[in-house]
Specification:
The complex is a heterodimer. By secondary structure, chain A is α/β, with parallel strands linked by helices. Chain A contains eight helices and 18 strands. Chain A has a six-stranded mixed β-sheet with strand order 5-6-7-3-8-9, with helices on both faces. In chain A, strands 11, 13, 14, 15, 17 and 18 form a six-stranded mixed β-sheet that branches. Chain A has a three-stranded antiparallel β-sheet with strand order 2-1-4. Classes of the chains: A alpha/beta, B mainly alpha. The interface between A and B is medium-sized, with 35 and 32 residues.
């Protein structure tokens, strides 16, 4: 038997010219909605027992709306969601907790909200207390808890009974790393016992590690449903496409004074990253040979021009930076309206992650003397590990190993 | 309809803990705790009694207790408080619990049921306090007071019916939440609670008859102050209105249930 069947589901938010018309419609009066906004359309998939499914999609793709219809808080406008079993959601941990009540009282209350009777809760309250591991605090008011402790109790309650379907939001960073391991252990145990997992995440690693299937939502419809690797590749391609587009827009707009820091005697006309084939890339493989291309437009006669760039990690820390002074490619005595294109070729010996490039145009070896233009986040790219063995860190320093 | 009852029964544990928790949390960390629930209406009674009875010198015919006016006031306020509290809280219950309704799946009918349960609990405590005060003022409890059980049911039915209609509409038309408290205030003064019906001019008596709370408050007066049985015929109309509103309220609630979450 299919555990969860989503059949041609759609959700529209209807607007009426007046709320009175909406009320009139409840009394079966023929009133037409003045506007209809479809957030989801033609969603169909089946989920069998024991599967682990990743639900991915950009913000606003309709993931939450779909989950709400699966859990039953929202009614679909068309189509049908059929669930054969109990659903538990670790979406809103601590929902309905009352700060003045003790952990124990809140546990009874929250489990009651999930539909359990007092007798059923009596039988698991000791487990909840033991799993949360907050000691004497369990019998003290929740307002005295740290947020991590509150999460612990909430998670313990949400998973006190094994559900047939467990929905996990990406914000599954429950408490400290000790408790994270513990909670993941419980999720895995559920999975082994036959619980179907439905995981919402943007984290490729988490999806590929936990799921055997992924569903990609975009613009309110399922655009891909299949093995996680395939779906995530497709997802990344969509993002890359969109980000490229925004990069272009930025370059166009950045011609204005607003984003320019520096004297403006020369400006950065373009910043792009190309792979070995000369195609623009957003995602590059560890160790891939790439070319950072920087176009420069000179607006006033310059005695000297140095172009520099810094690659920064996602936290903004410098990973590598250099300039044409150190590379011995300084141009001097440039006339007004000269256009130059610099090509910096290097292997992307970087660890997996997201990086940004800051670009600067200046005279002499640093931008302190005269700064023509400085631009942070001129380009963003991602490094993914496609073929190399697993490693950690910001740099790719491939070793060989001998053992004597 | 049957499904709603079933949902309430399945969630009885949740409903009971909700009522209990609300009670606990309302008075957590206050010295007098639950006493505050009684102090508020009694302070109201004391203010009216002081101003209207002593200052304005209002007299009540038909009863010889010198505290007669205080008794009369208390009886009326016991009825009105229950009514106004249920209406007022049903009015905002869906908005207040909007977050919960959007994120958790549970029978939504449990929300008004919790409101009624907790208002009834408050009213019971107030009733106990009222009995003590009556005894102190030399007015012994009488057998007619058993009428309070069915009377309370009528108040609840009327208040829940009205509260559901207004509460559901308030989700979509938020002005209702603003205007209803004003109407309730006016309604309070159009119901003979702080004054006797005998001082109402004849040309206004007709407006009293269309007030369903008039029959209820009068019955409370009869039962608690005058030791008389309520006027069943007058009450009958109110019961009819109450049942009508209940049906309308539940109908609206059912029809609007799914749209409410969209709008919250």
């Amino acid at each position: 038997m299919t555990l969860l069947s989503v059949n041609n589901v759609g959700k529209a938010y209807r607007g009426y010219r007046s709320e009175w018309q909406r009320i009139a419609r409840w009394f079966y009066l023929p009133v037409k909605a003045s506007s209809e906004h479809w957030v989801l359309k033609h969603i169909s998939f089946n989920i069998e027992a024991g599967e682990a499914i990743g639900l991915v999609g950009q913000n606003g793709a309709g993931k939450s709306t779909l989950l709400k219809m699966i859990t039953g808080t929202l009614q679909p406008t068309e189509g049908r969601v059929q669930v054969n079993g109990r659903i538990a959601a670790i979406l809103e941990l601590g929902m309905g907790f009352n700060a003045e009540l003790t952990g124990r009282q809140n546990a009874y209350h929250a489990a009651g909200l999930m539909g359990f009777t007092t007798e059923q809760i009596d039988s698991v309250i000791a487990d909840i207390e033991a799993f949360a591991e907050i000691g004497e605090y369990f019998d003290q008011a929740v307002r005295t808890y740290s947020s991590g402790m509150q999460m612990r109790v909430a998670f313990a309650v949400a998973t006190a009974f094994r559900p047939e379907i467990l929905i996990i939001d990406e914000a599954l960073s429950v408490g400290d790393s000790y408790f994270q391991h513990k909670s993941f252990g419980r999720i895995r145990a559920f999975q082994e016992a036959g619980t179907t997992l439905l995981i919402v995440s943007h984290d490729r690693g988490a999806i590929q590690a936990l799921c055997n299937r992924a569903i990609l939502l975009d613009g309110g419809t399922v655009i891909k449903d299949g093995p996680p690797e395939e779906v995530m590749d497709y997802y990344n391609a969509i993002i890359a496409q969109k980000e490229n587009a925004t990069v272009e827009v930025q370059t166009l707009q950045d011609g204005t004074v607003q984003t320019r820091s520096g004297s403006g005697k020369a400006s950065i006309a373009s910043v792009a990253l190309y792979n070995a084939e000369g195609a623009p890339v957003e995602y590059i493989a560890v160790g891939e040979a790439v070319c950072l291309s920087i176009g420069v437009q000179v607006h006033a006669p310059l005695p000297e021009l140095v172009v520099g760039y810094v690659i920064k990690d996602r936290l903004g820390q410098d990973v590598f930076g250099t300039n044409t002074h150190h590379l011995q490619c300084v141009r001097t005595d440039l006339a007004k309206d000269t256009a130059l294109t610099y090509a910096f070729r290097f292997p992307a010996s970087l660890g997996v992650g997201s990086y940004s490039v800051a670009v600067a145009l200046h005279a002499t070896d640093s931008h302190i003397a005269e700064n023509y233009e400085w631009r942070d986040l001129a380009l963003v790219f991602n490094v993914v590990n496609m073929s190399e063995p697993n490693f950690v860190g910001l740099a790719w320093i491939p070793p060989t190993v001998e053992c004597n | 309809m049957f499904g709603m009852l079933r949902g309430v029964w399945d969630y009885r544990g949740f409903i009971l803990t909700s009522i209990k928790n609300e009670f606990i949390s309302r008075f957590a960390r206050s010295k007098l705790g639950g006493l505050w629930m009684i102090i508020h209406p009694l302070a109201q009674v004391a203010i009216y009694a002081l101003i209207l009875s002593n200052v304005l010198g209002a007299r009540l015919p038909g009863i010889d207790n010198k505290y007669a006016y205080a008794l009369y006031l208390i009886a009326g306020i016991l009825a009105w408080n229950l009514f106004a509290e249920i209406v007022g809280r049903c009015l905002t219950v869906f908005i207040d619990q909007g977050n919960l309704m959007k994120k958790m799946r549970f029978p939504r009918i449990a929300l008004p049921v919790i409101v009624v349960g907790s208002c009834l609990l408050n009213n019971l405590l107030l009733f106990v306090a009222v009995m003590v005060i009556f005894a102190v003022l030399g007015h012994a409890p009488n057998v007619q007071m058993f009428w309070l059980l069915p009377l309370t049911l009528v108040v609840v039915a009327l208040a829940v019916g009205l509260g559901l209609v207004l509460g559901v509409m308030n989700v979509f038309l938020r002005d209702i939440g603003q205007v209803v408290p004003i109407i309730l205030q006016v309604w309070f003064w159009f119901t003979p609670i702080v004054y006797s019906v005998s001082i109402v001019p004849d040309y206004l008596k007709g407006t009293l008859d269309i007030n369903p709370m008039y029959a209820i408050v009068t019955s409370y007066h009869n039962v608690m102050v005058y030791k008389l049985a309520p006027n069943i015929a007058e009450l009958g109309v109110t019961v009819g209105i109450a049942l009508g509103l209940m049906v309308l309220g539940l109908f609206l609630f059912r029809r609007a249930s799914s749209e409410m979450v969209d709008s919250l």
